[in-house]
Input
Amino acid sequence: MITSADTRGFDSLVTGTDAELEALVRPIGLPQTRIDYMRSLAELLQNWEKEGVDPTAESANLDALVLDLATRVRGASYKVAQCALLTARGYHCGIIPVDSGMVTKLAPVLGITLPSGAVAHERMRHVLEAAVHARSTDLRSLATANGYRVAIPEGVEPTWWVHLVLIYFKRLYLNGASPQLCRQRPVCTKVIGCAHPTRIA
Output
């Protein structure tokens, strides 16, 4: 399905009939929801073009873009909007996408209080991005000192690396019915208060 969609290209998909699109996305389910999302996204992009909004411009207001996409695209949300813009702008554009587990599991462990509802994803993004901005040099040094094989471009903050570390931290320590946090592989005391710091592999 991905190969077929990529071969057709976005412009061709937008002009396709509902029947053609349904046949394309049927293997992954929810065909009408996906069609509605794509049609709505295409409409937003056309409006942005008329309004002179370039979502890939360096000067673009990311908060406004996320809000606009989450509000005006059917089936979107803050987390979908964050991911869509991250994909459009590139992994090192400064956006830290926030999934549901980061809101419900990671935020409490880090002592972050969030509002209820979908807006929590956007608030968590702001908190994490501000933290990276404040400690960008330290986080780059941490990645180097711990031997992470990552290529963080010069002149950008390590937001994508931080996103990946937090996602894997959540998977390793916070997921499941009985989270293993601090039981077998304690991590940094400055982050969660465990007794013996060790590297997150």
Q: What stands out?
A: Residues 182-201 have pLDDT under 50 and may be disordered.
